[in-house]
Specification:
366 residues; Catalase HpII,  Chain A, domain 1
Length: 366
């Protein structure tokens, strides 16, 4: 499962002083919570129940198996990956905004993964013995730092509850522009982050954490890459959602009924703190200098990806956060520090508004 990469420098050692906390992060946290409140309250009033402040709309809910390789070298046999093991996993595929939009609005995709019944010392506030990993279908975070994150979320919050037709039109225009750029080899990641990317099949996408984490004695980012032919054949496949507000969900549900899929769960160890920075999440770590290596496999069997029981358990009840997990995989960097309070704030709002546990009677297919 693992690869050999000769002539690489050793991975950097984890230390508390790798992080550089900025003096204004308390103000940033307050700004993020204010934006989250605007999104949460606006959407709760619209829908009659609370949804997530980000990644509100789910397209597919899956149950699978996460298997850790038992033959890893010492630098990779860390934390959850120190020993071979097989775990139940829950997976939620979603779209970025905090409002529930027509699938004709093309936006970045997210994949939240929860590994269940893990063993070890947990981060404070973790809900059970779980390890969460949050991915998006791009290798970098949209902004480098917490204050820029707060500014971007403020702009996103201002679009909540605005005319959906305008969002569809903007998405279409951006997609056309980025497609034209692609023909001359100039695809824009900035445009893609604004919605200027094609509506491709979520099961064929490669997903990245974009932010770094402690990896036991080291530091790493993570990637989830389609491995089985049943998934790689879907890579780049464009889904026509014209006239189908939930076209992605419908496509995933149809395909999942007969699909057995496997993803490679990969680790990218930081080897040069200048080239693989901790605090700037907008910098892509060059694979030639810090290669990804597979350490586990995520597998799903044929299933219905949108049943009432999955909607209740995974979509409405579970809270996904990078801060749900093992101390050995503590989130690092300013973006992750900013997410800690903001994501907890969003989850608490949902519990308070919807009741705990989340009511099964809440609409789930909107």
């Amino acid at each position: 499962m693992t690869k050999e990469f000769p002539m690489l420098p050793p991975p950097i050692r984890y230390a508390d002083d790798l992080e550089q906390v900025q003096p204004d992060e308390a103000e940033t946290d307050a700004s993020l919570e204010k934006s989250f409140d605007h999104i949460l309250e606006t959407t709760a009033n619209d829908y009659g129940f609370a949804v997530r402040a980000v990644h509100a709309k789910a397209h597919g809910l899956f149950e699978g198996t996460f298997t850790v390789d038992g033959t890893l070298p010492a630098e990779l046999a860390q934390g959850l990956f120190a020993h071979a093991g097989s775990y139940s996993a829950a997976m939620r595929i979603s779209t970025n905004p905090g409002d529930i939009l027509d699938d004709n609005v093309v936006l970045p995709r997210g994949l939240a993964l929860k590994i269940e019944q893990v063993a070890g010392d947990m981060l404070p506030g973790t809900e059970g013995q779980v390890q969460d990993f949050l991915f998006v279908n791009g290798p970098v975070f949209a902004v480098p730092s917490p204050d820029k994150f707060a500014g971007k979320l403020k702009l996103l919050a201002a679009t909540t509850d605005r005319a959906e037709g305008a969002k569809v039109a903007l998405s279409t225009v951006l997609g056309f522009i980025n497609g034209a750029l692609g023909k001359v080899g100039l695809e824009s990641s900035a445009l893609a982050g604004m919605g200027g990317s094609p509506q491709v099949h979520p099961l064929g996408e490669t997903y990245f954490t974009t932010t770094p984490f402690r990896y036991g004695d080291h530091v790493a980012k993570f990637r989830l890459r389609p491995l089985s032919p049943s998934l790689t054949v879907l890579t780049g496949t464009i889904i026509d959602t014209s006239g189908k507000p939930d076209g992605l969900r419908e496509t995933l549900r149809e395909d999942a009924r007969t699909l057995t899929g496997e993803w490679a769960f990969e680790v990218q160890l930081a080897r040069d703190i200048d080239k693989q920075p901790i605090e700037d999440a907008s910098v892509e770590w060059d694979e030639a200098e810090a290669p990804f290596v597979q350490v586990a496999t995520l597998r799903i069997e044929p299933q219905d990806s949108w049943t009432d029981d999955k909607v209740l358990r995974i979509d409405e009840t579970l809270h996904f956060s990078p801060w749900n997990g093992l101390s050995a995989h503590r989130p690092l960097g300013g973006i992750n520090r900013a997410r800690r309070r903001a994501y907890r704030h969003s989850a608490d709002f949902r519990v308070k508004t919807n009741g705990c546990p989340m009511a099964a009677s809440e609409p789930a297919a909107t």
